[in-house]
Each structure stands twice: as structure tokens, then as C-alpha cells.
Amino acid sequence: MSYSENTWWPLGFERDFKANQPHPASTPFGALVIYKTNNHWAGFKDICPHRGAPLSQGWVQNGELVCPYHGWCFNNKGKNTFVPVINKATDAALECISLRVEGGIVWATAFETAPFPAIAALKHDVTLVGNTTANLLNTLENFLEGSHTHYVHNGFIRSENTKRTPLKARLFPQPNGFKVVYEAEPAKGLLTKLLPKNYQLLTPTAHYIYPNIAILEYLTQDQQPLIRIEACLNESKAGCTYAARVFLLRPWLRFLGKWVVKKLFGVIIQQDKRILEIQKNNLESFPQRSFVSTSADTVGKELYFWLYQPEQKASKTIDFEVYW
After folding, report:
1. In which domain of life is the source organism classified (predicted)?
2. What is the phi/psi pair of residue 271, to 5°?
3. Taking all residues of the chain, what is their mean pLDDT, rounded to a whole number?
4. Within 169-227, where are the H helices?
5. Where in the chain are the domains?
6. Contact partners, residue 87, CB within 8 Å, separation at least 6
7. Under a CB-based contact definition with an 8 Å cutoff, are residues 97 and 109 in contact?
8. For residue range 93-143, what is the model confidence (pLDDT) as tens digits?
9. What are the helix (H) ranges across the chain?
10. Which CATH fold would you assign to the domain 126-323?
């Protein structure tokens, strides 16, 4: 079974979907149309069984989805209720998709029995959305590995010119992914230097939940979480979209930091988007290229194994070192 199957995929934040209006959505298992009426969500494959028109280009009328081509109507269970040209219903139905809302995000799956990922039940403080033409593997690696931050985010997280120090890291295999814990790191960029002095020595952690959840968490000296960034990724032929939730886990940080975090992270996201799309375009010119990895690329290698070669994923802890 490929990673696109038996999985819940995030379609976006609930607040961004207007009620009583069809919305198109892309997923690894095809194009969807979703809509909400009276707090009830309905989702289907985005094709009318009559002549194949996209239902997402139609409209919602009296709680039913209307095809824009010949006006066929379907209720929220996908059953045809009316065909105007024959003045009655016919024996036709849409292919239903399971939807649920968790963490303020609308999720879809082709398999109703798919296990739901263990995302945080906390209320988030900042939301971020975006897209890239990069694939799922490269987007996940970009989010979870920190070695690019000296260059792509120079000065924001780490600096190209700051003296590097060795940090020990350990990867812990987990049933649904893995977690990496690094040694505590002093402030090296604007984001951490803005924090009070007693919060400038933080332990970075990276957590992967198969197949499409990436989490960064920064722990204080007493190993309590200070900031958590949770990215939920969706993949389609066009690339990846994401819905990210940021948790500011101190009252003072929440009071002072929401606007700053949203602005700074907005810049960082655009920097990541740029390098990912440069990489993606270049890879298209070298489709058969193989790559050289080092022990510092443990996160990227493990992501690859989870997505494409699960028989090779780690079964015991892996120790490695990075110079950040």
C-alpha cells in the first residue's frame, strides 16, 4: 500500500471554506468537491456521473449540490434527487469521501477506517497556509532538518557567519514515525534572540508522523515545550499545500508574540518556498540523478525510507552529530 492510501489528508482550515458553496480540493487520491450546510460536511469525487463535468464549478441549492452542465442535483449522501430534463430523479450517485474536522482543519480520506494522526488537541495561536510545487518528501525534509537554515534563513534562525558548534542528536523510532532530539542550542538568530535571556538556550526537536505531519518543538532548560509548530501537508500532482498551526506555550509569549511570529514565519515560509521550487525545477533537468548523503542527513534518509522503502526504516535509535 502506498503512503497516499489509508491516510487522512488536510484540505485547509475550516474557516476558509464558505458555507453553502462547493469547493474544489486536490488530494493524492483525486480531485474532490466539498461543501458545508448547517454544520454538516459532504465530500465527493469531483465529477458528475452524467457527463463528467466538475461539480465544484456548480452551486449549492437547498442543501444539495447542483451540476453546472445539465443541472443534475445530488443530496449530501451523494444520491441523485432530480434531473431537470426528465423532471424526476434517476439511479445515479456520487462517489463519497469521508471528511472530518480536527484542530480547525478539514481532513479527507478515501478509507473511512484510516487511523487519524495524533495532532495536538491544544488551541493554536497562529495559523499559516501555503503551497509549493515541491513533492511531499522534499517539503517534509525542508521542514524537519535544520542544516539549511544558516543559508536559506540567514539571520532569522541561524546565521551563515556565526561560529558553528557540534550538537549531538538522537533519532528515536516510533510506531507511527520518528522523533529527533538535539542538544540544547544557544540563540543564533533573530527569532530566538528576541526571547528573554533565560529562554535563549533551547532544545530543538523534530517529530515526523507518517505520512504527512511534521512537527518542530523547542523545549526550555527544564524540558518543557515553549513553541510548537505543526505542519499538516497535502500532496497532489501540482505539489504540496500545507496547513500549519503554531502554539505559543507561555502566556507572555502568546501576548507579545502572535503578530511577530506570523510576520517572521511568513518571511521564512517564502524563503523555503523559493528554495524548494528552485530545487524542484533543477531536479526536472536531472531526472536520473543520485545524491550523496552524510550522517547529518539522517532525517532526510529516514523520511525516504518511511515513504518509499519501509523495510529499511530504523528499528533502533540512531546517534549522529550536526555542526550548527
Report:
1. Bacteria
2. -65, -45
3. 94
4. 190-193
5. 9-109, 126-323
6. none
7. yes
8. 999 999 999 999 999 999 888 999 999 999 999 999 999 999 999 999 999
9. 136-144, 149-152, 190-193, 251-285, 298-308
10. Naphthalene 1,2-dioxygenase Alpha Subunit; Chain A, domain 1 (3.90.380)
